[in-house]
Amino acid sequence: MKAIKDTKRLSGLIVDWQKVVYSAAGVIPIPASDQLIITFHKQLLQGDVLIDDGVHNLEGGSYTKVLMTAPHNRSYDAEANGMIRVNNWSEAIAVVDRLAGK
What we know:
Blueprint: E1 14-16, E2 20-23, E3 26-29, E4 49-52, H1 55-58, E5 64-68, E6 83-86, H2 89-99
């Protein structure tokens, strides 16, 4: 697996052919296709945690809501609306680990 050396030029996440996502947090494995769900209405999902930068995707769901900070949601009061705000994937992984009791 090749590492990306110039992470400053990354403007998001890059999917490698070996099913890995590179981010500032390091390497995050992508689930197998039989474990991946793509949907427009995320509130229909039944799960433990949803991490998203879109407030509209987190509102109304029955999961723990983790709001990833982005320019379009910086002024949104996540805590007042029952969400946990994170600023990067390292923080998101730490939240999931804490919720899982790790």
